[in-house]
Amino acid sequence: MLYGKKNRVEVLVNNEELNSRWYTGTGLYRNVWLYEDEQIHFAIDGIKISTPDVEKDMALVLVQSTVKSEDKLNHKITIKTEILDRDGFVVTEESSCSTIYGQTEQSHYQRIGIVNPQLWDSDNPYLYTCRLTLESDRKFIEQAEVKFGVRKLQMDSIHGLRINGKQVKLRGACIHHDNGIIGACTLEMAEERRCCLLKEAGFNCIRSSHHPLSKAMLDACDKYGMLVMDEFSDMWTWSKNMNDYATYFDMDWENDVEKMVVKDYNHPSVILYSTGNEIQEVGTPKGVEINRMIARKIRSIDSTRYVTCGFNGWLAGIDYEQTISKDIKEKAVRENKNLNDMMGEMMDIGDEKMIASMEVHPIMTERIDAFMGCLDVAGYNYLTLRHEMDRERKSHRVVLGSETFPCDIPELWEIVKRNNHVIGDMTWTGYDYLGEAGLGTIKFEGEKEIIGRTSWSGDIDITGKRRPVSYFREIVYGIRKAPYIAVEDPAHFGIKQQKSKWAFEDSIPSWTWKGYEGKTIIVDVYSASDEVELFINGKSQGKKQTGEKKRFTAKYEVTYEPGTILVKAYYIGNKSQEFILTDEIHTAEEKVNLEISSNITELRPNGSDIAFITVELCDKNGIVNMQAKKDIRIEAQGVGVVQGYGNADPYFQGTYQQKTIPTFEGRVQAAIRASYEEGEAIVRFMTEGCASVEMKIPVKKC
Predict the structure, then answer these.
(1) pLDDT (tens digit, 9 = 90+) per residue, 346-385?
(2) Helix axes 321-334, 352-360, angle to 10 degrees
(3) Domains in the chain, start-ordered, CATH in brackets?
């Protein structure tokens, strides 16, 4: 350190080798802070706020603060703590005094009451601000502000999960940490946008798969009412890839768990900690002991939240496949039952009947009971048969579908609704991500195998556009009454397909299929109504039943003709309750223009604000032509830089740093990051046959 002179701090990161099962990014992709403090100061992450007692007319706020002295002398200190409401008005305050001895740390506990508090929950995420002012020898030293929410958590197998006394079912989304076209770069506005898109799509909870969630995303979840299950790691001592966290687990796990919990402590959105995901050791005594150690460490720091783990039965039971097979076959013979009835026809470990048999086998039960003994919630990855089975066996056990197949949501959500001990479902995944390429794609016979870029298993693609499965899920959840139309690609009609459990349908919300006039096309209608009626250019294609008994789906095979496709959803009750809702799609004209839009209108000159600009191929009526394809070039000038530029194509072969990107489903997207200067960020898009479009985004201080 050169005192009185400029110093340069460098952090070098080498992350060139394989280290995960998916795209992790590299470099410093989250904020790094350098703190400069007085000799007496609040310790880093030294302020903890909880609300141990919450009633309608009074809430008790416990403020714990740690003050650190680097000085050798003793000092008299005062901590003034104020609670501010959403509008910045002080609603209550408290002060405490003490003497801090040289080169020591001192903890302060302040119990502060809020009269008639505003409570935080998913529907009303009300945030207070706790402002602490530190004085030493009557001189101002430091002021710190921490946002927090007043809420009460309760959970048991009879009432399920309750927040402020009200039962809550988790409409959950697993998400990876990348932000699509900007990769792993974690910027506050990008995280906030992703949180908002997930909330708008009907989710009320996210699972950080499989990493401690960023502070930026936690802030967004607090602000918008998104509940959080924060997950520690994807592995413990057994590696899943070269150079992964297992290499460092024994040395680092305790410190890393502590950092995760301390990071989360003041965030009302966090309700669950996960000790890990699909840990390979779960079926071993050593794995059970590690799970206990992690859970114990979490509770030693934060006893106000619940602990779970994403338990994968396939990993827990892979070593006894043959034992299960033998037991079930012998039972089939004894009971004179067909092997199909006993789930005994097993060809390989990926066979559905084999997997189902493993879920309910006594050996699996024994291993689950040993592992779940230290957890508050049994988190089951793809173990759906156990959700209701546990109610009979373990009447006090609370269950969460911690990772499930997206296409199974009708059956999964029905289980959640009829069982209080099942507190929710977490689909894989809510938002598409880089890596695990092709997980959710559909392979068609005769097509050339192409290496993919994204998983394509998200309800929302990497540009933030909702896919048909998202609207389907919203209908299943019961929060969307209007029907939704999706059309399967006629190029694949009648072709044999290979479809993974993470895939949904080969469909998009488009009625523009040039070249397929007069040919058969499949229209999927999703609706919670009693029945639907499909119309093509005003002509009825017949009525079909929908709703829960039909998996909320009606499929039509129709002859394609351009124009308008419309569906009417009929809700049939008594005369006073009958009503009709509709959805419709129009054919886009062949001639298209570039239409430009942005999620925000201005940026701040802080080097981290970011705008997502979308360009779509639209006809004169504003209808997106999802069939049209054009290469679109980007140019940026002024005080903004292109952080990323791309599309949502799961098979995209380029990079997100290219200047020219082909459209996918009629659109491309650019992420424009502000510099540290005021001015304008000017972004222009050009393509052959269309007039160029330009957007100017002011970059200015608030």
Answers:
(1) 333 345 666 677 788 888 899 999 999 999 999 999 999 9
(2) 90
(3) 40-151 (2.60.40.10), 154-431 (3.20.20.80), 485-586 (2.60.40.10), 593-699 (2.60.40.10)
